[in-house]
Amino acid sequence: MNPILVFTVIASYFSLLLIISYLSSRKSDTATFFTGNKQSPWYMVAFGMIGATLSGVTFISVPGEVGNSSFYYFQMIIGYLLGYFVIATVLLPIYYKLNLVSIYTYLEKRFGNSSYKTGAGFFLLSRVIGASFRLFLVATVLQLAFFDSFNIPFEITVIVTLLLIWLYTYRAGIKTIVWTDTLQTFFMLFAVIISIYLISSHMGLSFTGLLSEVQTSNYSTIFDWEWHSDRNFFKQFFAGAFLAIVMTGLDQDMMQKNLTCRNLKDAQKNMLWFSLTLVPVNLLFLSLGTLLYAFVAKTGLTFSGAESFHFSTETANFIHTDKLYPELAINHFGTAAGITFLLGIIAAAFSSADSALTALTTSFTVDILGIDVYKESKNTQVKKRYIHLGFSIVIFIVILIFKWINNDSVINMVFKVAGYTYGPLLGLYAFGLFTKFQVKDKFVPIIAIASPIITYTINNYSEEILGGYKFGFELLLLNGIIMFLGLFLIRRK
Asked: Is 424 left (phi over 0), alpha (psi -120 to 50) or beta?
């Protein structure tokens, strides 16, 4: 694609975000940044959360991973529905009853200060890593589409991306994000629908031919009933349910949007419609993946370079699958496809990274520094801006680290990391909600650190110890159970 055209698309989209930021930040105060003054319409939050949940990972990595994992990812999506039901009926009522700004304040009220700081600390770690993975993926695409044409280093690409996000979120925070996420979700869905249409046109497929291509493909297998497989249905289903609970219900990033709704009833309606919408949307992305591989097979396209998408005879898998969709959209499907893809990936990048940056700022401000966000002061505003900038720098560093060590599909990597970092949160909240025990609070951080270490050790030797059993994403559940048992051991008698 023409670099000037790419620049025009990026500049136009960013200008639109700045306009929304300006309009939404008028008459804003400190509380606006963190709570949106609790005035967000539930239907806007629901629609915007689709984009924040999907992010650049779904947009690029899910279609690419179809080549290695077929539609098995959809087993987790089915599990998500159970997880979102638990969030709507169990967690949201607690958060609204306690009138929380940070959801980790619950842990202080239930157990004590050490538990509180532990929960917040694991969220900060989890979200920094998750946001960095997602931005790394998007920065790689922008590098390919624009910055490589001018020999601009990858590091500059990341800095520019983070700077743009910081500029339109630093004033009104979550209030701006509720509005920009709505816009960004629209562009993401528009981009994938247009991409499917253009691929079908290139392949000469009618609508019925399109459906037939997806249904009859070897890649469209959904269910795996092999017990030893890490993609077994029951493993994926329950992993999906618990991943939804921890990565949405126990995640300040996602819950902060829910807590901007006017009341509990609106927040529950938001969760219901958001969860139901995610099912067809994810099917859309998986179908796109099938069509991408069908296009490559039909045209006989190959890509040169060790870092390009290709099939490895050594591993019997496709390698660098995250690069398949960007490569085809930008260089093989024509200008219209390239533009819509860029709009989609930029929207995906900003919809996940902007809310992550705001949530990290919120958690650090409220949970670590203990600042009352309802007390307006110039000092609080200054601290908020420095924290906001500080987390931008941290994410930049983590992205560069990930660039040096990355060797896996980002969708797999995100869920693997979540299994280790969100496990202690799952155990803490489960123990708090489903038992009446108090714990020796000062020992909670030790249990929280030990839990993922034990989980990692078990995972490494699982096939030897458990007769060939191989863990998948259900490592999260194992981690949570270990944390729960550890808390039981340090309960007060």
From this structure: alpha
